[in-house]
Amino acid sequence: xxxxxxxxxxxxxxxxxxxxxxxxxxxxxxxxxxxxxxxxxxxxxxxxxxxxxxxxxxxxxxxxxxxxxxxxxxxxxxxxxxxxxxxxxxxxxxxxxxxxxxxxxxxxxxxxxxxxxxxxxxxxxxxxxxxxxxxxxxxxxxxxxxxxxxxxxxxxxxxxxxxxxxxxxxxxxxxxxxxxxxxxxxxxxxxxxxxxxxxxxxxxxxxxxxxxxxxxx
Length: 217
Fold this sequence. Notes:
Layout: H1 4-13, H2 18-24, E1 32-37, E2 40-44, H3 45-52, E3 60-63, E4 70-79, E5 84-95, E6 99-101, H4 104-110, E7 116-117, E8 126-131, E9 136-146, E10 149-152, H5 154-160, E11 167-172, E12 178-187, E13 194-198, H6 199-205, E14 212-216
Parallel strand pairs: 1-13, 2-5, 6-9, 7-9, 10-12
Antiparallel strand pairs: 1-14, 2-6, 3-4, 4-5, 4-8, 8-9, 10-13, 11-12, 11-14
């Protein structure tokens, strides 16, 4: 349970309603919504143009839970030494550097060995080829399996009693429930509270996007 001192800090920092304050100060565990990430790619503007044409801009299809992020209408084919994956979704907006995120099962299908890394940690990661409607892009050390993590705001971190970069344990699922170890906490004022895992991990726990998970000691 959150103690009085922490509650005082929360009330000073947040313009929260009384109902919210009462909810977080109770003994009821705080549920964190799950976001299951299927294979996807974040593209630099240079690679967007290489794949879809000079001056091309991504077309938003669906807003994601993280503010400012969206699933684009555009998809690409991913080609590896052993096989390929079609209709891999592009996420926007454009980033400074291209990053392809796949699962371990995808790695076996492609014939690559992508390391489990936090987003942006691409040093000596895996290679692949992207094919779009107007061309292709060779990805060198730009393919990872994303480390499971939780996005949250500083206010969420205060309520949950965690800090940026901390690794926590998360209880997930009912019938096939399990505890995920080494879940990285990522704190930023731009983030919405969400637990991110890939399809392999979600299937193992029997959970879907939107299902609540909980921190455990």
